[in-house]
Amino acid sequence: MKETPQEIVVFLRQYKSSLEIAKAVGCSQELINKIASGERQNPRYQIMDGLRDLAKAVKRKTPRGNVGR
Question: Where on the tree of life does the source sit, at the highest rank (predicted)?
Answer without folding.
Answer: Bacteria
